[in-house]
Amino acid sequence: MKPIRRRTLADHARGFLRDWSLPRQFRGESPYSDAAKSSGSARLRPRLEEADKVGTNICPYCAVGCAQLMYAKDGTLIHVEGDPRSPINQGTLCPKGAATFGWLTSELRMSKVLYRAPHSDRWEERPLDWAMDRIAHLAKQTRDETFVHKLPDGTVVNHTLGMASLGGATLDNEENYLIKKLFSGGLGMVWIENQARV
């Protein structure tokens, strides 16, 4: 029976040097050819190859409004990158935009409505419909309790100082127009601001 030859450190080094692309490139082979490949890189596959759906998104973290491509597999997000078709960011993302994937898939991300009743020491899970109804009820209650029709000198103001709005920086002009109409015209709010100006 033939004895099994164990690979020595020198054998490993020779194999590594044959497989490593840098010596081939130093010998004059083009770094744009197969000289740049190794057995490890040949086995690599693009992580987006598995995606079965690609959607678009606008990054919500500042006023620039960079476009993003959202890659999903079986309904689960697997990657986020800049959209090269966008005239705004042309496929690039800043550190906040590049961190979108981590923020969306973090185990610490809140995905349920939590409510803490007044004077309570604990949070309770509540349905989203309940939370939306509660917000609407409290907004109407606050408006009704703080609404001023006239000032003491008789000047008609029809406003409330009991509520304020701070809009997100990625809202476009049309959305801000509608927010202004609803909050000032409908609810009588005076303090309406936008994150992009703060």
From TrEMBL:
<keyword id="KW-0560">Oxidoreductase</keyword>
<keyword id="KW-0411">Iron-sulfur</keyword>
<keyword id="KW-0479">Metal-binding</keyword>
<keyword id="KW-0408">Iron</keyword>
<dbReference type="Pfam" id="PF04879">
    <property type="entry name" value="Molybdop_Fe4S4"/>
</dbReference>
<dbReference type="InterPro" id="IPR006963">
    <property type="entry name" value="Mopterin_OxRdtase_4Fe-4S_dom"/>
</dbReference>
<protein>
    <submittedName>
        <fullName>Formate dehydrogenase major subunit</fullName>
        <ecNumber>1.17.1.9</ecNumber>
    </submittedName>
</protein>
<feature type="domain" description="4Fe-4S Mo/W bis-MGD-type">
    <location>
        <begin position="52"/>
        <end position="108"/>
    </location>
</feature>
<keyword id="KW-0004">4Fe-4S</keyword>
<comment type="similarity">
    <text>Belongs to the prokaryotic molybdopterin-containing oxidoreductase family.</text>
</comment>
<dbReference type="GO" id="GO:0008863">
    <property type="term" value="F:formate dehydrogenase (NAD+) activity"/>
</dbReference>
